[in-house]
Amino acid sequence: MRKSIKVLVVILTFLFSFNASAKSAEEWAEDLGYDLNVSYDATRVMEAKEGRFSQKIHHAPGKLMTETNAGGMQRRVIMREDLGKSYMIMPSVGMYQEMNIHQGMEQSGQSM
User: Any bridge partners for residue 96, and if so which?
Assistant: First the structure.
């Protein structure tokens, strides 16, 4: 249990620090030559002293879902630009939270 908490703290720290220094989605897209109107699936890989972690990303125009699994604890953040809402789901603890889109971006470490 202790290791799971450490792993979760490392992942959350990484995600929040990433978000603090993140460019807007439009800036990243322009820099990298991506079209934000294209759907894609990706895996973000993070490495730390405690281990290697990955986050699955599913993107469609105006929609984004991130899925993080750390120490057996799964967390999904679903963002819907058209609704201006985001949803955080943690099935392992039976938790669901509806937030505004900006809070969802902070939770997922992503921009639309």
Answer: 89
SS (H, E, C) 34-70: CCCCCCEEEEEEEEECCEEEEEEEEEECCEEEEEEEE
* Residue 83 DSSP SS3: coil
> What are the pLDDT digits (tens) for 16-62?
444 444 566 677 677 777 777 889 899 988 888 888 888 899 999 88
Residues 66 and 41: their CA atoms lie apart, in Å, by 10
Closest CA to 86 of 70, 60, 107: 107
Going by the DSSP 8-state scheme, the letter that residue 24 receives in this structure is P
Enter the pTM of the model. Answer: 0.63
Name the residue ranges covered by the structural domains of the chain.
2-108
Residue with tokens 């937030």: 99
CA distance to 24, 31, 37, 96, 99, per residue, from 89 (Å): 24, 32, 26, 5, 11
Pairing between β-strand 85-90 and β-strand 73-80 as defined by DSSP bridges: antiparallel
